[in-house]
Design goal:
alpha/beta, Rossmann fold, Zinc Finger, Delta Prime, domain 3, 2 domains, five-stranded parallel sheet
C-alpha cells in the first residue's frame, strides 16, 4: 500500500509525510474514524514510508529492499496485531498471519466481519487476547533487523483484553528505542484514557464523494453516472461503496432479516417471529452486532425518508423501495424508543446474553413500537 493508493484524506496524508520529513515522528499514533474511511490503508502506507530507505517527497520508492518486503507484508521489523478468535492451538495473531496477509493484500478496505469470515471464526467474538501482550514484548525486545524503526500496527485496539491493554500502556510509557506504535481504532472511547493520552491522535473524516467517484471509475470501471449514485449511498465509506457494487451476501442477508422482522411484527405473527429470532441467534456474535448496527441505520434512513430530502438519504434502490412503504411507521413518536431498544440489544450481545432471548424480546417489543 502506497500513499497514492489511499482514497482521499489528502490533509492527513500530507501531514504524515511532512512530519516524517521533518523528523517529528511520535512514538505512538492513534488513527480514529468510522469504518471504511481509509485508516488502515493510511497506516500501511505510512509504515511503508517510514521503512523505505529511498523515500521521495510524496511516497515510498517501491523498489528498495524494504519496499520489496512490504509488497508481501513480510518486513521483519513490522508486527501486526489484530482481533482473532481462538481455534484449537491458534491463539495469537501470528497463527493467523497467512490469512491476514491475504486479506490485506487483496484489499485493505475491509470490515471486521469480512476478516472474521476469512479466518472462519464461526460464533466467537473477536478479541486481542491477553497472551498477545507477551508476544508484543518478545518481538520488541529484539533488535531491528534492518537498523531502522520497529513498527507495531494494532488494528482495532478497542478489542484488546484488559491485561493486554495494561501491558501496552507500560510500553507506551517507556517505549523501546526507535519503536513506533500505530493504533487504528473505530471506537477510541473504549480505549484506556491513559493510552489515548500517550498517543498523537489523527481523526479521519468521511471520504469526499468526489474522491469515491474517482476511485470507482479508475479502479473498478464504474460508469460516471453510476459512480455518483454509489458515492452518495456510501456516505463517506469506501467499504460501503464496494459493498453496494458487489451486493455482498451479508448486506442482502441483513436487508432480508430487517424486512422480515418489520413485516412479522406489524402482522403480529409471534410464532414466525420466534423462528426469525432463532435464525439471527445462529449467526456469530460479531455478525449479530453488525446486524443491529444495520437496523439502526435503516431506522434512521426511514425516519429521514419522511422528510422527502433525497440528499439526506443513503439507501440502495431495494432499501428505498421498501422505505417507500415502511417509512411512515417510523416517526417522532417511536423512533427514539426503537433506537434505544436496538442499543440495549447490542449491549446484551456484548455481554453474551442468550441471543435467542435478545432477539425474540426485541421482536416482541417492535409490535408495540410500530403500533405507535
Amino acid at each position: 500500500m502506497f500513499f497514492k493508493d489511499v482514497i482521499g484524506q489528502e490533509a492527513t496524508k500530507q501531514k504524515l509525510i511532512h512530519e516524517v520529513q521533518k523528523g517529528r515522528i511520535a512514538h505512538a499514533q492513534l488513527f480514529c474514524g468510522p469504518s471504511g474511511v481509509g485508516k488502515l490503508p493510511m497506516a500501511l502506507a505510512y509504515a511503508r514510508y517510514l521503512c523505505c530507505s529511498n523515500r521521495t517527497e510524496t511516497d515510498s520508492c517501491g523498489v528498495c529492499p524494504s519496499c520489496v518486503k512490504w509488497n508481501k507484508l513480510v518486513h521483519p521489523d513490522v508486527h501486526f496485531i489484530y482481533p482473532i478468535v481462538k481455534k484449537g492451538k491458534k491463539e495469537v495473531c501470528d497463527d493467523f498471519i497467512t490469512e491476514w496477509r491475504h486479506t490485506v493484500l487483496n484489499n485493505p478496505y475491509f470490515t471486521i466481519n469480512q476478516w472474521l469470515d476469512d479466518i472462519d471464526s464461526e460464533n466467537g467474538q473477536a478479541t486481542i487476547y491477553a497472551k498477545e501482550s507477551d508476544e508484543i514484548l518478545r518481538k520488541l525486545s529484539l533488535k531491528s533487523s534492518e537498523g531502522g524503526y520497529k513498527i507495531t500496527l494494532i488494528w482495532l485496539p478497542e478489542k484488546m483484553h484488559v491485561v493486554c491493554s495494561n501491558k501496552l500502556l507500560k510500553l507506551l510509557e517507556e517505549p523501546p528505542q526507535n519503536t513506533i506504535f500505530l493504533l487504528i481504532s473505530e471506537a477510541p472511547d473504549m480505549l484506556l484514557p491513559t493510552i489515548i493520552s500517550r498517543t498523537q491522535r489523527f481523526n479521519f473524516q468521511k471520504i469526499e464523494e468526489g474522491d469515491i467517484v474517482n476511485a470507482l471509475q479508475n479502479k473498478y470501471g464504474v460508469r460516471p453516472e453510476d459512480s455518483k449514485t454509489l458515492a452518495h449511498i456510501a456516505n463517506g465509506s469506501f467499504i460501503k461503496a464496494l459493498e453496494t457494487i458487489h451486493l455482498n451476501e451479508e448486506n442482502e442477508l441483513f436487508f432480508d432479516l430487517f424486512v422480515n422482522l418489520m413485516r412479522l411484527s406489524y402482522q403480529r405473527k409471534v410464532r414466525e417471529m420466534k423462528q426469525w429470532s432463532e435464525q439471527v441467534a445462529g449467526m456469530g456474535r460479531e455478525k449479530q452486532k453488525s446486524f443491529l448496527e444495520y437496523c439502526q441505520k435503516m431506522i434512521r434512513e426511514n425516519f429521514i425518508y419522511n422528510l422527502h430530502c433525497n440528499k439526506m438519504n443513503y439507501m440502495t434502490i431495494p432499501e428505498q423501495n421498501f422505505a417507500s412503504r415502511f417509512a411512515p411507521f417510523v416517526n417522532e413518536r417511536n423512533v427514539i424508543d426503537i433506537m434505544n431498544e436496538l442499543s440495549e440489544a447490542q449491549q446484551h450481545v456484548e455481554q453474551n446474553v442468550n441471543p435467542k432471548m435478545i432477539f425474540f424480546d426485541f421482536s416482541l417489543k417492535m409490535i408495540m413500537l410500530l403500533k405507535n
